[in-house]
């Protein structure tokens, strides 16, 4: 996940691309981003469709980022301020990120029989191991229907090495043995509140592609 796992590298990429400030429906004007228009959009591996309520920007994968075909990342104001990650159709035994087996600290892989607390532990590990979170707090974990299945909602806060508190929300479910989830993460002051409605709209509209 580019936004959530590579904050400092993302900042460098933004500086290199020389992107302009975001205008309504105009995107960042950079090769690093592509405009996501209002309406239905297939995300991740294409097996999940969400309805974007306003224009977003999809971040293009670069060689310095994780390239996992089941994961797709969007942002409104730049990856240091907000981000939406979509995981669609992640198979049993696969990982949210690429990592070497020789690395001392590992992010657990997905198992189709995971419980909701195990999902939260996997995501917390992602933030601590790859995202550099120095403090991570679960604020809520509850059942929530998603894609017609019995899923979960996970709310959290984290403090990163840049000394900025961020808030996040995840809704997800296992469907036919594969993981589907939407993760929203943003600076706690202003940016989370200004876009969490978009997260809710897309979580509600999400459906599997026929």
Question: Could you outline the blueprint of secondary structure elements for this entry?
Answer:
Blueprint: H1 2-5, H2 7-17, E1 33-36, E2 39-43, E3 48-52, E4 56-59, E5 71-75, E6 82-90, H3 116-129, E7 135-146, E8 149-159, E9 165-175, E10 178-187, H4 191-205, E11 207-208
Antiparallel strand pairs: 1-4, 2-3, 3-11, 4-5, 5-6, 6-10, 7-8, 8-9, 9-10
Description:
- With 210 residues, the protein is α+β, with helices and mostly antiparallel strands.
- The chain contains 4 helices and 11 strands.
- The chain has an 8-stranded antiparallel sheet with strand order 1-4-5-6-10-9-8-7, with helices on both faces. Strands 2-3-11 form a 3-stranded antiparallel sheet.
- A hairpin with a 5-residue loop joins strand 8 (149-159) and strand 9 (165-175).
- The protein is globular, with a radius of gyration of 16 Å.
Q: Summary?
A:
The chain is of the alpha+beta class and about 210 residues long. It is built from four helices and eleven strands.
How would you sum up the global shape?
A: globular
- Order of neighbouring strands in the sheet with most strands: 1-4-5-6-10-9-8-7
Class per helix and strand makeup:
alpha+beta
Number of helices: 4
Q: Oligomeric state of the chains? A: single chain
Low-pLDDT parts are 2-26
Terminal CA distance: 26 Å
Mean pLDDT: 83
Q: Spell out the helices and strands N to C.
A: HHEEEEEEHEEEEHE
């Amino acid at each position: 996940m580019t936004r959530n796992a590579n904050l400092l590298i993302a900042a460098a990429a933004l500086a290199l691309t020389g992107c302009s400030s975001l205008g309504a429906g105009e995107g960042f004007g950079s090769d690093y981003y592509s405009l996501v228009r209002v309406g239905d959009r297939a995300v991740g591996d294409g097996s999940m469709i969400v309805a974007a309520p306003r224009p977003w920007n999809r971040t293009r994968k670069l060689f310095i980022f994780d390239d996992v075909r089941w994961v797709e990342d969007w942002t409104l104001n730049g990856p240091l301020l907000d981000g939406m990650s979509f995981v669609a159709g992640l198979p049993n035994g696969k990982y949210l990120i690429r990592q070497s087996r020789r690395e001392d600290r590992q992010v657990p892989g997905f198992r189709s029989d995971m419980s909701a607390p195990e999902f939260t532990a996997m995501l917390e590990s992602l933030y601590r191991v790859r995202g550099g979170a120095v403090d991570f707090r679960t604020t809520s974990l509850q059942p929530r229907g998603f894609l017609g299945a019995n899923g979960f909602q996970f709310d959290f806060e984290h403090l990163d090495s840049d000394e900025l508190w961020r808030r996040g929300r995840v809704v997800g479910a296992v469907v036919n043995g594969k993981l589907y989830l939407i993760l929203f993460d943003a600076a706690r002051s202003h940016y989370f509140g200004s876009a969490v409605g978009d997260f809710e709209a897309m979580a509600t509209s999400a459906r599997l592609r026929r």
